Amino acid sequence: MKYEEGDVILCKVTDIARTTVFVETLNGTKGSIVLSEIAPGRIRNLREYVVPKKVISCKILNIKDNHLFLSLRRVKTDERRELMDQYKKEKSFQGILKKICGEKRAKNIIEKIKQSQTITEFFEDAKENQKLLEKYFTKEQIPQIKKILETKKEKEKQIKKQFKLSCIQSDGIKKLKEILSPYENIKYLGNSKFSIKIKSRDLKKASHEMNKILEKIEKQAKKGKCDFEVKK
Question: Most CB atoms closer than 10 Å: which of 67, 106, 168, 178?
């Protein structure tokens, strides 16, 4: 797999040596994270953030001689949540294969599927076109997998963010109402603070919709000379 600077990827912690955390991507590429890129501010206990064998989300800062220089603290909450959700889903589907086909046979199937796509992508495609299953599974196994695919429906997920919006003009309240009126999923928290929630079975879609709404609010706030800030 080819990596680029700015990519957010999953890595497994392999070792912790004083001020450096060593990791490996899930396909075996080596990387490291310096202490200042673990978390902002002073770190009292490094193991609150990283321990050996833990899978973490990292952002690629630099690549040199096939070694990845990474950051943990620069990964956004939504990015981390989305990656971990994908990882858990992938592990779940792999577990299904091992249960139905056995450890050795499942390993071979996984390797073949991964040459062109992830296991999750394969099963998502198979939901729409179940003939794809015939390439890897026996006639006895296919009904079992179909049954699992039918019952394994995506649960609705929710993402939430807070933002601050204020307007000191004489008609400030009117302006705030005009800016926020198009959206039903916003709640006033007091002291010029608001929360927004988006629900969807597709976390990536929900995140995109969230960012789109916040961008529109920010644009209208600037137009109305109001102060806007997304809380981290």
Answer: 106
